[in-house]
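Project standup — Tuesday

K.O.: blocked on the structure for the chain from last sprint. Re-posting the sequence here as requested.
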Amino acid sequence: MVHTTVHLVRHGEVHNPEGILYGRLPGYQLSELGQQMAARLGTYFSDGSHDVAALVASPLTRAQQTMAPIASALGLEISTDDRVIEAANYFEGMTFGVGDGSLRHPRHWPHLINPLRPSWGEPYRDQVARMHAAVADARNLAAGREAVIVSHQLPIWIARLAFEGRRLWHDPRKRECSLASVTSIHFDGDEYTGITFHEPVADLLPGASGVAGA
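H.V.: unblocked you, prediction finished:
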């Protein structure tokens, strides 16, 4: 059996001073810090310890910008795949919170009644289906080597939960999927064998010493 790894990479920090839940909205780009994170990822995947054969990115600008330094460092073309896009969300374009956010308006409350599906957005099982299909295609494309997919926090986390056989509904505050993190899915042939997690930009994350908040 050949060993193949598919790396699910979350994009870098986005410029979003208004604190909007931007979801799939166009025009949201990496902040200056996000660009530093992307550059670090380019170094991470080209340091000689990886053997990357395929690059796949969400169509959203922040994902394409995050992948660009990786593609440049490796001399590979980027394939865009709609299946790894951000999850659809009813609250897209709104601020999300109890104080001055959308949660204080009763008209939005019916969208919060079922966290297991979830009722406010794309069903978790639909996210699993599209993400796992994209991972399978990337695995086949890079058979015996490595593939990199730049996607978004929720689809990456849901894909991981499903691979690990864990329940899909969860506390969003407990996701292990920080900005520019790398969730690596390992296969022997077509068989899933495990996941490892790395934070190449840990020192650049909001809250790290000398780094401003997101």
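K.O.: great, moving the ticket to review. Residues 210-214 have pLDDT under 50 and may be disordered. The longest strand covers residues 3-10.
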